[in-house]
Amino acid sequence: MDFASFIPLITVLVIIGAVGAGALIVRSKVRSISREMFGTDSFIKGYKEQKKMVSESPLSVRSMTSIYLPQIHADFPEFDYELYKSKADAVLRSYFTAISSKDVLALAEECSDTLKNSVIGIIEDLERRNVTQVFAENVIHNIQIARYIKNGATVTILFNAAVGQYSYLEDPDGKVVFGSKEFKHQTIYDIALVYIQDAHKMGVGVDDGIGLNCPNCGAPIKNLGQKFCEHCGSGVIEANIRVWSFDEIKEQIVGKKAY
């Protein structure tokens, strides 16, 4: 056999050698990049470790407590910040429990009818889709006042809560259809504490208007928390018909999430 008959075999061997050398170069490059980015030779292992680290790192809340708390105390001297911060924590945990268990009765008693109806709507939607929203190992890292909103007859203190949790949707067979059981979800929840009228203490319907008037001149008291009559300047002692109530819980969504 002459040399020409070996040319095809040699060509194939050269190609295989070139491909093998290229694969080694690529593999070396990937390892180099992986070591530089993650400190490990395995890109997949490094990526998972990085994702795990991110999943365990709490987000920062918008802390405006030092700015707004003096304003709140000026309007409501009796407002106990530590008490309502603790209640915001408990209410948020009850929110997770109510949705996971599909039982609105699990909500804390400080929740308003508006918040209860919102949770009922979420539960009904989950039932229609035949899935369960699981919130597990909930860790509330920090709660701070983010905003203080006065709008006529409504006063709202908006808390921000930094939360780490496993959050995912399961089908009836326990299969995860959204979210992850492996990595925690770090997120921020808004919790609205509202100063509202408690109509039940007045013996009237919830939808009926409740008006307060100055005991001296009879002028209407327009704003919640108002301590003096705008017309005659007389001090106003409020009847205990207005209460703080948690009115809304909402996640600050980045990208698409179920709830």
General form: elongated
- What is the average of the pLDDT values? 79
β-strand amount: 15-25%
Structural class: alpha+beta
Largest sheet: 5 strands, antiparallel
What string gives the helices and strands in order? HHHHHEEEEE
Termini Cα gap: 75 Å
Could you tell me the radius of gyration in angstroms? 30 Å
Report the uncertain regions: 198-211, 255-259
Helix content percent band: 25-40%
Number of helices: 5
Q: How many DSSP E strands? A: 5
Description of the structure:
- The protein is an alpha+beta fold.
- The chain has five helices and five strands, in the order H-H-H-H-H-E-E-E-E-E.
- Strands 1, 2, 3, 4 and 5 form a five-stranded antiparallel beta sheet that branches.
- Strand 2 (154-170) and strand 3 form a beta hairpin.
- It starts with 6 loop residues before the first helix and ends in an 8-residue tail after the last strand.
Which features would summarize this protein structure in a list?
5 helices, elongated, single chain, 36% helix, alpha+beta, 259 residues, five-stranded antiparallel β-sheet
How would you summarize what this structure contains?
This protein has five helices and five strands; from the N terminus they run αααααβββββ. With 259 residues, the protein is of the alpha+beta class.
Show the helix and strand layout.
Blueprint: H1 7-38, H2 43-55, H3 65-75, H4 81-101, H5 113-129, E1 132-151, E2 154-170, E3 176-179, E4 185-197, E5 242-251
Antiparallel strand pairs: 1-2, 2-3, 2-4, 4-5
Helix pairs in contact: 1-2
